[in-house]
Amino acid sequence: MNRKFTDPFLPPERLLLGPGPSPVAPEVLKAMAHSTIGHLDPAFIGLMDELKAMLQTCFNTKNEATFTVAGPGSVGMDACVLNMVEAGDKILIARNGVFGMRMSEVASRGGAVVVPLDFEWGKPVEAAAVDAALAADKDIKFVAFVHAETSTGVLSDAKAIAAAAAKHGAMVIMDAVTSVGGVPVKIDEWGVDVVYTGTQKCISCPPGLSPVSFSPRAIEHIKNRKTKVLSWFLDVTQVMAYWGGEGARAYHHTAPINALYGLHEALRRVLVEGLDTAFARHKKAHLHLVAEVKKRGWEMLVDEAYRLPQLNAIKIPAGVDDAKVRRSLLLDHNIEIGAGLGVLAGKVWRIGLMGEGARVEHVDTLFAALDKVLKG
Amino acid sequence: MNRKFTDPFLPPERLLLGPGPSPVAPEVLKAMAHSTIGHLDPAFIGLMDELKAMLQTCFNTKNEATFTVAGPGSVGMDACVLNMVEAGDKILIARNGVFGMRMSEVASRGGAVVVPLDFEWGKPVEAAAVDAALAADKDIKFVAFVHAETSTGVLSDAKAIAAAAAKHGAMVIMDAVTSVGGVPVKIDEWGVDVVYTGTQKCISCPPGLSPVSFSPRAIEHIKNRKTKVLSWFLDVTQVMAYWGGEGARAYHHTAPINALYGLHEALRRVLVEGLDTAFARHKKAHLHLVAEVKKRGWEMLVDEAYRLPQLNAIKIPAGVDDAKVRRSLLLDHNIEIGAGLGVLAGKVWRIGLMGEGARVEHVDTLFAALDKVLKG
User: Fold this and answer.
1) How many helical (H) and strand (E) elements, i.e. helices and strands, does chain B have?
2) If contacts are CB pairs under 8 Å, which of residues 102-121 in chain B contact chain A?
3) Cα(A356)–Cα(B97) distance, rounded to whole angstroms?
4) Across the interface, do B268 and A6 touch by the CB < 8 Å criterion?
5) Which candidate from A23, A209, A264 shows the least CB-CB separation from B9?
6) Which of the residues in chain A have pLDDT under 70?
7) Does A87 contact B at CB distance below 8 Å?
8) In this structure, are B133 and B173 located in the same domain?
9) Is A256 in contact with B330 (Cβ distance < 8 A)?
């Protein structure tokens, strides 16, 4: 390569059908290129208020404490877990994929006592098992789970899990990174206390931000902590002062201005289309993909009953070279799909039909390319 | 207002002469609007390698562990402090402004025993005092300080402070948020073990990222910790695996792709201009500002000997309504300047001449507007 590291960087154009990031609309990219303004500018404060209103709609919540953490979904996870747990607190973590495992790691670093509740990868979290685990240990204060497991493509029944938690007075922390914008998320109705999502999945915004929401009960809990939140940056009571939760705005950190322009435009597009229309579009693209899979005699990893439309784990057909196929799709056809993670590495392909990516024509483009690659 | 929250957002055009964000070049904004690609795409991995090389140049370091934390400078602070300290560790924190105070808060939440060393706001950290404090308490493991205090406009002598720490075997953590790109930063030569900066100051990139660098000694120290880093997301040993420090890249989090496109272009512009040329440009704009201040019979807060060129604290002239002037500058003239923070609130204006903002013509624009506003 003759490239110097100070040469301008021009990325290739890819069709993003992996587990995220998803394709970003030109309007969102253009919004990110608007001139930067100050993070205490009245115009910016107006933007923050609008973002909050749009996020409340996406989460189906009235929670005042609804805002965006200035880091990717993993930081949202840190923020939600570390604000809630204190050293010695017992937390039940339902694990049916990579992200449940990660939550355990986050909680135990935060000093919590993790009670794991494991399910086979590719299966959902069962509310009855959550109920039983809570009945068996009355000291458990929190239940955490992943609504839509990006590592497997499984949707768990959040409403039933939250109801099981409520029965035992436990508070609920939900990972909605891949669910928001792709399937219904109704945190007030379900009784979810704390939720985080990402921007690079069904909202089709570039990665780097994590919208979160805390119920009044969660905020009350945080205010009554015996110890301070371990991370100054993530302390919700302080971040809320910046996002205008109570009284005057106090400087906390410098918000990622241009990224938030992008999120505003991405959320605007989601809401102008309408959440229900977006869900139907995801479903349609997904069913088309499943039909193409069946046509070829291949199999989906996950049972139909709890399959996510936006993340499709396809069992890699026998005799096929996983890495070679993905590389050829990417480099010869400019299509990105995802590899299996953890125990599913080499066993599945993960096809994301997320946000702007959830279109029948993209599924057709993918299968046309896949057929070519497989023919060699 | 007839505005609906789902209307597109178009920010006003402001001249950013506050404490950050600084003005962003159109080329950087355009780079952020390039199509999003996957964070494990070979093209993106190439971008990460180039970013690392450019950051090494900016920090004047050979440190392998040089990369970008996916959050604003405050997250960089969390990352640097929380990776180094464990519960019970003694850390000397030199405090001469807001950001030294914040470091104390971060370290104590991380379980460290903070030994504060306070200086008057507007004065630099004195190496002799650091030496004396370390001599008085042999248990202190770390020295932390802010190289360029954004809250006051003071430059401290990093070389002398790091030398004092070295004399007593203490490791050095430096906040270089406002210094990188505006004044020389030579971490290898000075013996700084851990450093973080921001993108929205003298690098003139939108806020949201925090470049960091860890010396081999710091990495060794982190690897030998008795306890895990409190934040999973910030654990440098894991982030490094993602940035390709040792062996194959492992998935950690989803990098903020488009923000990193912007940083690449911003760093490229800094290095193509040349760091020394950029420093001289900052100095020239600063001296012009000081001359304009003197011409009006006003005063700078900070003594000439340790004044930062990129952050100028001007004492607010007697009888002037601080908030009214700043509001009029912003709303009538589209110029942002900064308010005083903490004990300096209402007493100073903070004029940032950072990165793209460090130009004589911007100083002229500002003073022409200021004169108009003050005439009423």
Assistant:
1) 13, 14
2) 102, 105-106, 109-110
3) 46
4) yes
5) A264
6) 1, 245-248
7) no
8) yes
9) no
Max intra-chain CA distance, chain B: 65
Peptide bond into A26 cis (omega under 30): no
> By the CB < 8 Å criterion, does A35 face chain B?
yes
3-state secondary structure of A57: helix
**CB burial string B147-162: b at 16+ within 10 A, e below:** bbbbbbbbbbbbebbb
Q: Report helix, strand or coil for B23.
A: coil
Residue B92's domain is classified under what CATH number?
3.40.640.10
Domain around B244: 26-270
Q: Does residue B250 share a domain with residue B187? A: yes
How far is the C-alpha of B358 from the C-alpha of B283, rounded, in Å? Answer: 8
What pLDDT score was predicted for residue A3? 81
Residues B163 and B182 in one domain: yes
> Which residue of chain A has the CA closest to B71?
A71
Test B228 with A74 for CB contact under 8 angstroms.
Answer: no
pLDDT number for residue B159: 98
pLDDT in tens, A92-101: 999 999 999 9
Region of B334 (left: φ > 0; alpha: ψ -120 to 50; beta: rest) is left
Domain end, chosen from B241, B270, B299, is at B270
Question: Does the pLDDT at position B60 exceed 60?
Answer: yes
- Asked whether residue A61 falls in the same domain as residue A88, the answer is yes
pLDDT at site B203: 98
Q: Is the peptide bond before A116 cis (omega within 30 degrees of 0)?
A: no
What tokens were used for B87?
């519960």
**B291: its two tokens:** 């001359």
Is B323 part of the contact surface with chain A (CB cutoff 8 Å)? Answer: no
Give the mean model confidence (pLDDT) for residues B282-296. 98
- pTM over the 0.95 mark: yes
Q: Which residues of B touch A274 (CB under 8 A)?
A: none
Q: Which of B41, B77, B330 sits opposite A336 (nearest CB)?
A: B41
Task: Indicate which CATH number applies to the domain containing B369.
Answer: 3.90.1150.10
Domain count, chain A: 2
> Mean pLDDT in chain B?
96
Name chain B contacts of A23, Cβ cutoff 8 Å. Answer: 36
Nearest CA in chain A to B250: A341
Residue A339 near residue A349, CB atoms below 8 Å: yes
Say if A344 falls within a structural domain: yes
Quote the ipTM score.
0.96
Give the closest of A27, A37, A234 to B14, CB-based. Answer: A37
Chain A residues within an 8 Å CB radius of B13: 35
Which of B81, B232, B341 to mutate to probe the A interface, most A CBs <10 Å?
B232
> Is there a domain that residue A119 lies in?
yes
Query: For residue B172, which of B215, B210, B135, B109 has the smallest C-alpha distance?
Result: B215
